[in-house]
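Lab notebook: predicted structure, single chain.

Context: the supervisor wants predicted structures on file for every construct in the current expression panel, including those that have not yet been purified. This is the next one on the list. No modifications to the sequence; it matches the entry in the shared construct table.
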Amino acid sequence: MADFWKRFSRNRGAVIGIIILAIVVLVAVLAPLLFPQSPWRMVQRPFLPPLAMEQYPLGTDALGRNVISGLAYGAQVSLLVGLVSTVAALLIGIPIGALAGYFGGWVDDALMRFTEFFQTVPSFALAIVLVAIFEPSIQSIIAAIAIVSWPPVARLVRGEVMSLRSREYVEAAILSGQTNLTIILRQVLPNTLSPIIVLASLMVATAILLESSLSFLGLGDPNMMSWGYMIGAARTVIRQAWWLSFFPGVAILLTVLALNLIGEGLNDALNPRLARRGK
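Prediction complete. Output recorded below exactly as produced.
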């Protein structure tokens, strides 16, 4: 663990990403304590500019709602959607990729054709259709993002498992009489965790962007404040109240940037070749 952190901390961008993400997570966790009132509640006159009043440092929106309160509660939605949809995508993609890479043959062909079917449709367009069919809600958004996000996971795991399938320790496990399921779970998958972790960090960032895009189009959960909704609601008054789009946009930018920087740092720390070069 000490060696991992040493390699990770060599990447200054990754350390900055950790700090930014920690701030976002802290704000999301403390949002109910910092802003006990609902982010939907009207608290002042509309279009109050930033720093005009001490209680509302980022101003108010077109309906007199506190912008900074919306940002804090929007962080909850973005992180929730990003994490849960990524976990769901991993739970779909890892088994499919592992089975395809381990067994090969017709199993590989069938599972990869199934994977390619989802990749032929643009992910954003498919997510819009799925959310529209199941009605906009946090559950349907998470499910839609998970459905469009798992194919890259399956392909990555398939490639890793295929490269590990012929290793000596796997052949020894087969000769010792271990079942295929045991070999996959105990011998193969643990050695694929490094690239999966790196991909997962990038998938969280992509999921946050997808959720923000869906909310911007009016397909977000109507009961939950999100950064995408805030930008979408402010697009008609962008000249009159620039801050309504600016601050949520900066929040999305910093969060996605932080996750990408962390992904780069994880790649440096977990990639054995890069680790040896660092020494």
